[in-house]
Amino acid sequence: MKQIFCLCICIMVVAAPYAFALEAEPEEPIIVINEVMVNPDAVSDSRGEWIELYNTSSNPVSLLGWTVTDGKRDMFIIDEDIAISPDGYVVLARCGDPLRNGGVHADFEYSGMYLANGGDAIMLFDKMGAVHDALFYSEERGFTIPCGASLEVKDPFKTNTPSSQWAPSTSVFGDGDFCTPGTCNSWYVPPDPVQKPPRGALFFLFKKGILPVDGFLE
User: Fold this and answer.
1) DSSP string over 72-91
2) Is the pTM of this model over 0.85?
């Protein structure tokens, strides 16, 4: 009887975090500014500037009605029903033609906003007016703004406020600039997969019970 009681306690301790993960409510969508091409070299700024968004959540998000602005005069509204998938990217570009913008395949072409090479602000609002992310870059803030390379966030799952979270891209793309539009950033290192429980305590957890394996429960 004592052995059975101890066994049940062990199972509850090991199973607790997995049960919580199964029953947890879906997280709120979090769309972040993941990469920006401020000062292209292969093409002119009017053709080569773009902003990349990344969906860190596990739910698709429609960007219809979302606004990008510098907080002053420059702004544009996404007036197309563009869906950004979980772990997906959307590229917003001043020029949507890959033959003219350096080879970037944009999801949306905008006008009414440009990115100042010396420093600027990029603020992202959803259709309800809630701010989802903001980037304030300048050399005074510690940012390195090279010619011919995008600014990449090193880890989209961490706050991107400090300049130490940003760095020039190291991947050559298209017509020769360094950037990663629509793909994983060159600086980002994905975390290791979640480790499985040690052998001997391995089980499969379902909403209605526990399925024993490896003869752990008899």
Assistant:
1) SS-EEE--S--EE-TT-EEE
2) no
